[in-house]
Design a protein that fits this description.
alpha/beta; five-stranded parallel sheet; two-stranded antiparallel sheet; 7 helices; 7 strands
Length: about 220
């Protein structure tokens, strides 16, 4: 698990793990819950992903925006305009929706070429692992007052998920012994994927095709 998504080495994903596209969850991964502006802690991560993969190969997969719960895909349109990346339209919610994801990325031939980044174990991580993607679990961006709009049920489930997986108890330790492998990434000893850098100052969000999105 990393905190936040800005700690991920996206260039290593591209150069050493055969990853061709990155999928982000939205709430508590890129933005505060139910907000449509990029969170400062996520700025460097999104910038790095765009630098490594380009705008066509970075997208959001949300269980609200872009689904049938989003009439006319209005929320998806707002998020796309605010963050400058696509929101994948899909009818089946995570951990379903694989085909719509594959259809979205023209250069992706199989799920192992995708990286899923998100804060929910039972949706984001399970979705990626079920289909052989490389998955990155992030801790929630927001705490306390900043997290007040988070869905209460989701907040409780997330706490239980994290306690079961990361708690120092026999079940948690047993789970870690049986982590799923990835087709191309052999582990941190072979290719570390977590880095620690000072955050970039907020300003303009540059993308790989030399276009610039204002924050």
């Amino acid at each position: 698990s990393v905190s936040p998504s800005s700690d991920v080495n996206y260039q290593a994903l591209r150069d050493h793990c055969n990853i061709r596209a990155v999928i982000f969850d939205k709430d508590n991964t890129l933005t505060a819950p139910y907000e449509n502006t990029l969170h400062p802690k996520a700025h460097t991560g999104l910038q790095s992903a765009l630098d490594a993969f380009g705008t066509n190969n970075v997208a959001i997969l949300s269980n609200s925006a872009g689904t049938d719960d989003d009439p006319g895909y209005e929320d998806a349109d707002i998020i796309e305009n605010a963050l400058g990346i696509a929101v994948i339209r899909h009818r089946e919610k995570k951990p379903g929706g694989l085909q719509e994801v594959l259809d979205h990325f023209e250069n992706v031939e199989e799920p192992s070429q995708l990286c899923m980044v998100g804060d929910r174990l039972l949706t984001d991580v399970v979705f990626g692992n079920l289909h052989g993607m490389l998955t990155v679990h992030t801790l929630p961006l927001c705490k306390g007052e900043e997290n007040k709009r988070d869905n209460k049920v989701a907040r409780m489930i997330r706490a239980v998920e994290n306690k079961i997986l990361y708690g120092d108890w026999w079940g948690g330790r047993r789970i870690w012994k049986y982590k799923l492998g990835h087709k191309f990434w052999k582990g941190d000893d072979d290719c570390p994927l977590v880095l620690k850098n000072d955050m970039m100052e907020l300003g303009e969000l540059k993308v790989a095709d030399d276009k610039t999105e204002k924050l």
